[in-house]
Amino acid sequence: MEKILVTGFEPFGGEQTNPSWEVVSALPKAIAGRKLVCERIPVSFRHGPAAVLGAIQRENPSVVLCLGQAGGRAKVTPEFVGINYADARIPDNDGEQPQGMRLSTGAPDAYFSTLPVRAMAQAMVEAGVPASVSYSAGTYVCNAVLFSVLHALAASKSTARAGFVHVPNSPKQACRLPKGTPSMPIALVLQGIVSGLECACSWG
Ligand code: PCA
Prior knowledge:
It is a single chain. By secondary structure, this protein is α/β, with parallel strands linked by helices. The protein contains six helices and eight strands. It has a six-stranded mixed beta sheet. The protein binds pyroglutamic acid (PCA). Residues 9, 12, 18, 20, 43, 68-70, 138, 140-142 line the site of pyroglutamic acid (PCA).
């Protein structure tokens, strides 16, 4: 049975929870006839990308989807591109704060996601979940994970497809955040991710 690797992050930035992991831990055991393998990864420039790459080596998935929290966003957002750049606004969970530097010297400036991000966003919307393609995954750990995974898969000539989806804060988080902070119920985000994965698996 082919596998789908799905990852979510531990909490960061003083939060108690991370909606990305809340969603991943609620996913079904299989989607589109492929077994789901779920991994919780650290918010760490050093250890986050390595954790996903280790899981890819171990599980040999045909699809890799990493999820992360994007505070302030109101929609589920498949990411179009990962860039070879880090500029951390706050320290990561190891206390590291790379600023204004490349993630990898000698690697390309950027990689486009190899998942069908436009079709996935469309599938999410059709399932009734607010979603749109994002053209920036930021310059923090999520972008580092996306870039590093795409770089490693390209370098090894892997046929696995990979991408990243940012999700809004959960309502539980938004209760303690400033007035007007958008949020989305975990169950709705979950529906979006399932629809997005079904779409990705039906693609080519
Ligand atoms: N979001 C952060 C890192 C971990 C997470 O869930 C980001 O967008 O980079």
